[in-house]
Amino acid sequence: MEYAVVADKLVKYYGDFMAVKGISFKVKKGEIFGFLGPNGAGKTTTVRMLCGLARIDGGRAFIYNFDVAKETTKVKKVIGVVPDISNLYMELSCFDNLVFCAEMYGVPRSERKKRAIELLEFFGLSDKKNAKFKTLSKGLKRRLVIAAALVHNPKLLFLDEPTIGLDVKSKRQIWRLIHELNKKGITIFLTTHNIYEAFRVCDRIAIINKGRIIAEGTPTELRAMVSSNKVIELQVHPPIRDPRVFSKIPGVAGVRIGQDTIRIMVNDVIIALEAILKIIKESNREIVVLNLMGADAEDIFVKIIDKDREFERTKRVE
Ligand SMILES: Nc1ncnc2c1ncn2[C@@H]1O[C@H](COP(=O)(O)OP(=O)(O)OP(=O)(O)O)[C@@H](O)[C@H]1O
Ligand SMILES: [Mg+2]
Questions:
Q1: Residue 107: CB atoms within 10 Å
Q2: Which of 101-110, 157-166, 216-225 has the lowest mean pLDDT?
Q3: Is the pTM of this model over 0.85?
Q4: Are 195 and 243 contained in the same domain?
Q5: Which of 217, 235, 269 marks a domain boundary?
Q6: Count of structural domains, the chain
Q7: Which amino acid residue places its CA nearest to atom 7 of ligand 1?
Q8: What is the pLDDT of residues 107-146, one digit of tens each?
Q9: What value does the mean pLDDT of the chain take?
Q10: How many angstroms separate the alpha carbon of residue 90 from the centre of ligand 2?
């Protein structure tokens, strides 16, 4: 199988700081690959290295078999990049922005206008053809930015946090467009810190934390990593704010304190519940809500990151 992306022990330094710590992964042709991680994990840095926008300090990267460091021009022909910050011109119309991008990407003059019209139509922006970019809503702006990355018909599209800052409706529209582009045969590399987005949109996900990949798999596989886990959702009065109250209990795998509720991930419901009830009783608290449910995507994310922390702690001891 030929891969769309092969990252082999990629490293990036900013001064002395190692932002990406030798990560390896592969993206299959035709898939929607999610690169999921919290703020500062190294997502944008990795994308920038893969696209030839930032120097690779260690390891190697291949895009459709082209070596990114040595064949950057060839790489740029097969990829489209939607950066985390818009790169279009506020004062130009939607149509002119696309035509200009087509020119930048070396699309022959005779095809530029046709391509711009096609893209406006595909992205539901035909009626905004002559509107200045700055007059579009956030959601429509984001659509045009994606359209602009496709002027030269790339095989692989990098989307860096494509739905950040959008409302739910605009998010859904972008997710639908991503699926439609993927159905047309475009491989998608999507970065996000939004667990729901990754689980909903992607065929496969790599979770990155502090410059290292800590888990990889399909949403189903990642769920299975913690499938035996259940979550006890708890609301007590007066509220408990310190997760450590529960984290030491036998059978507890993770604790999340929310606005009103506490979510305790447990791998042995009976043992954990017994201890939890004891703590509540002994602290003279009252149970307002008690629910037992399956772990959701966010629980899984928190648990995987927790496991990683534990791993780092044991490493330091050694
Ligand atoms: N130009 C830079 N100079 C110095 N440090 C940088 C630079 N760019 C990023 N960093 C640091 O490298 C790490 C990775 O940053 P990066 O932007 O790749 O993360 P990210 O996963 O994209 O985060 P976010 O979700 O905030 O976009 C962070 O600790 C960040 O502070
Ligand atoms: Mg980023």
A1: 20
A2: 216-225
A3: no
A4: no
A5: 217
A6: 2
A7: 14
A8: 999 999 999 999 999 999 999 999 999 999 999 999 999 9
A9: 89
A10: 22
